[in-house]
């Protein structure tokens, strides 16, 4: 009886693990949720839904994306430059933030208020695949 209980417990634990494993994988990147205190940028439209999950988040200004790589879904380095590739954005940083076309905060730009989302930058002044710098106003 004691042995049976142990075996049953193991089966239940294994079933639970199988059930939660896919959800844990999906929640690893901010594809569905951008964490508070950050601006999340995505290489694809619609926050990378259905696409390769290249993303990166920022807590303060960055004047030049040329030395930044996208992260993968599991937070590992994609070794793929994020310069001129941003296609969607979520702002959870607590203030407005501006994407700029050129390094050093020049050229075309678009500003996104706190708690805003834009899954399609092609119809914004910054445009698709052009952002090279981010200005976060609260710092
Ligand atoms: Ca892109
Ligand atoms: Ca848009
Ligand atoms: Ca650019």
UniProtKB/TrEMBL annotation:
<dbReference type="Pfam" id="PF03995">
    <property type="entry name" value="Inhibitor_I36"/>
</dbReference>
<keyword id="KW-0732">Signal</keyword>
<feature type="signal peptide">
    <location>
        <begin position="1"/>
        <end position="23"/>
    </location>
</feature>
<protein>
    <submittedName>
        <fullName>Opacity protein-like surface antigen</fullName>
    </submittedName>
</protein>
């Amino acid at each position: 009886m004691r042995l049976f209980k142990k075996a049953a417990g193991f089966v239940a634990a294994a079933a639970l693990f199988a059930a939660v494993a896919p959800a844990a994988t999906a929640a690893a990147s901010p594809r569905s949720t951008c964490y508070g205190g950050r601006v999340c940028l995505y290489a694809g439209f619609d926050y990378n839904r259905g696409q390769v999950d290249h993303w990166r988040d920022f807590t303060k200004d960055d004047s030049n994306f040329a030395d930044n790589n996208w992260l993968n879904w599991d937070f590992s380095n994609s070794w793929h430059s994020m310069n001129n590739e941003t296609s969607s954005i979520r702002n959870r940083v607590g203030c407005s933030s501006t994407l700029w076309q050129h390094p050093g905060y020049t050229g075309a730009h678009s500003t996104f208020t706190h708690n805003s989302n834009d899954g399609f930058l092609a119809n914004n002044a910054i445009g698709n695949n052009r952002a090279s710098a981010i200005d976060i106003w609260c710092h």
